[in-house]
Amino acid sequence: MNYAASAHPDIAAKLPGWRAIVLFALLLAGLGGLLGRGVYLQGIHDDFLQKKGDARYGRVIEISAHRGMITDRNGEPLAVSTPVESVWASPPDVEADRRQVKKLAQILGMDVEEVKNRLFNVSRDFVYLKRQLPPDQVERVVSLNIPGVLLQREYRRYYPAGEKAAQTLGFTGQDDNGQEGLELAFQGRLAGKPGSQRVIKDRRGHIVEDIGSLHAPKHGGDVTLSLDSRVQYLAYRELKSAVENHHARSGAAVVLDARSGEVLALANYPSYNPNNRVNVSSHAMRNRAVADLFEPGSTMKPFTVATAIEAGKVSPNTLINTENGVFTVGDRKIHDSHPESMMTVAQVIQKSSNVGAAKIALSLRSEALWQSFSDSGFGAPTGSNFPGEASGRLRDAKTWRPIEQATMSYGHGMSVNLLQLARAYTIFANDGELKPVSLLRLDAPAPGKRVFSSRTTRAMRDMLEMVVRADGTAPLAQVAGYRVAGKTGTAHKLENGRYVDRYVASFVGFAPVSNPRLVVAVMIDEPNNGQYYGGLVAAPVFSRVTDAALHALNVPNDAPLDNVIAPSANIVEEEV
Amino acid sequence: MLRSGNGLNALLLVAVVVCGLSVVTSQHKARKLFIELQKEKESAQRMEVEWGQLQLEQSTWATPGRVGEIAEQRLQMHTPGNGQVRFIWTEPDGQTNNQP
Question: What residues of B are in contact with residue A160 (Cβ under 8 Å)?
Fold first, then answer.
């Protein structure tokens, strides 16, 4: 205040006192205004302004996450996702002369006119030229450097095993989501979750600062299957040749680790190439080993006989009157193709006598038979969690009539899938314990569930080993250097509730008998080349798969190498 | 007092300017390093992709079917037949023992 006074001492006195007060008040108000604005901007309006600022230079970028790999038990990749580029164009921005268009068409392997139409179709902003190109073609497209022709990254899934494991692995759709098979079953574990991140970009599009991730990308986890790609290949190869030789409709094979219940191979034929699914029929896509049901036929006899032995009704040497091959139950007749008046229980298994099995079954209570079939895993899903698994049918014992109890003893009037059947045979391979099947590699074998006593199963193992002797139904199942055991099955197919003259030939067995390591089940649907008996059609497949798989897994011999005995000219044929 | 005050002010001014400049340079450095990091991350991802592709390629070349075919047709090899395989057991004491 005294500045004014010192500058103009003569007018100082004239200045009214209120001026200073007004000025002070004005300045104070100005300060207050600024402070208020500051608080408003920094405190209250902050979010909006921050947003505006971020919008100028901040960007949210997507971070892609790839789908996990599927590998076999030894780490061999079975399904791998790898990025591929798709070429697309933005027609309004395209500048290309005729020469460039021609070259582009050449690289893409497309018609020149077609490419031209797509490139210069100005009514659209986005048009795919070709999707999922191999990397070398992509490089050549990039080197053309045509404005408006751009690349987009997509993931594509490859299956190195090709058609050998196609139905088991399944496949993914365009958006890399599992649609079939194990790709679908393990979708949750395999799928990646793309993340996003907020960044600051400079004028040239470089990311200069990472502000923070909104959500981190989650790459899909890898899945290690129990499959062994070598065994899978062997099973597929032998199955394929058998289906072709017998002009069969289809076939399936399952190889289980007898000790742990892990699935080592699950093969189907006909098959398809999962890397190129153009014109694939649903016939080829079907995983028959799991999704198809069939009447098991004589492969059920061991369960009937084991139940009777367990119940103390018979022993392997008990003689059964097999009525010269014809046995009447109610108004129906049961036949044997090799009629004999008497057979031991062991021979009933070895020669696959229906009359014998029926008589043994009728000596049991129906509930007891049902209970042991059910305990063996029939009529219920295997727990493999394979999509589309059919659980099979085992009717309640209360509804069984005597004839049904008799036919059920040799596997008629019920249905199973091949995996179920293979799993049930782990009981005989494992001293009476049923192992849960697993499609994932296990670090330790899962605990089994006891179905039969180990004495019963050992007796059954001896009887099943007789099946592959020269006078059994399946001498062709023998394997050089290993003791094998198993059971043939041949069943009429059901069509609209009636049996027709088409057959399902099957063989289920395990090896080596002294210390079982593998359970192998083979099913051939409608062999059509004169032969249809399980012992002639399916047993040789079992023999070759088992032989090769035991060698591949380095299983030591448990028999002299000259153990294979040539079968007699007339192999014992079972009644169907 | 006035004189020493000016000296201090000058010193503080210099300090402020130096601090300001160093903030700018370190920010610049940070951004450069970040770009570098981003590039490395990108190349890591590229390598991962390539690794996947190589793995794929390897397993495609090494499918049992292809190996078997080449072994049999080009190299004239065959699976050892009946009686041509012997298992040798090794005992814990290092002795070998020939069985069936």
Answer: 56, 59-60, 63
More confident residue, A9 or A284: A284
* Residue A179 dihedral angles phi and psi, to the nearest 5°: -115, -25
A207-215 β-sheet, strand order: A58-63, A195-201, A207-215
pLDDT band for position B1 (cuts 50, 70, 90):
very low
Which among B63, B83, B89 is the nearest to A161, CB-wise? B63
| Residues of A whose CB is below 8 A from B89 | 556
- Any idea where the domains of chain B sit in the sequence? 2-78
Strands A223-224 and A70-71: parallel
Give the pLDDT score at A7. 54
pTM, 2 dp = 0.80
The CATH number of A229-271+286-552 is 3.40.710.10
CB-side exposure of A517: number of CA atoms within 13 Å?
Answer: 15
**Cβ separation of A233 and B38 shorter than 8 Å?**
no
Determine contact, residues A255/A522, Cβ cutoff 8 Å: no
Give the C-alpha separation, A531 to A247, whole Å.
Answer: 10
Residues of B in contact with A164 (CB under 8 A): 63, 65
Residues of A within an 8 Å Cβ radius of B: 66, 69, 76-77, 80-83, 135, 158, 160-162, 164, 206-210, 229-230, 233-234, 237, 480-481, 548, 551, 556-562, 564
**Strand spans (E) along A481-561:** 485-495, 498-511, 518-525
A39-53, A154-168, A272-286, A557-571: the lowest-pLDDT one: A557-571
Question: How far from chain centre, in Å, is Cα A342?
Answer: 47
CB A482 within 8 A of CB A558: yes
Q: Do residues A410 and A297 touch, judged by C-beta distance below 8 A?
A: yes
Q: Where are the domains of chain A?
A: 62-224, 229-271+286-552
**Chain centroid to CA A66: how far?**
19
Whole-angstrom Cα distance, residue A126 to residue A117? Answer: 13
Name the residue among A485, A424, A412, A487 with its Cα closest to residue A451.
A424
**Which amino acid would we find at residue A195?**
G
Fold classification of A62-224 (topology level):
Penicillin-binding protein 2a (Domain 2) (3.90.1310)
Contact B100 A560 (CB under 8 A): yes
CA distance B36 to chain A (A): 10
Chain A contacts of B87, Cβ < 8 Å? 556-557
Residue type, A15: L
Better-predicted residue by pLDDT, A199 or A425? A425
Dihedrals phi, psi of A215, to nearest 5 degrees: -145, 140
- Both tokens of residue A338? 């090799």
Q: Taking residues A9-27, what's their average pLDDT?
A: 80
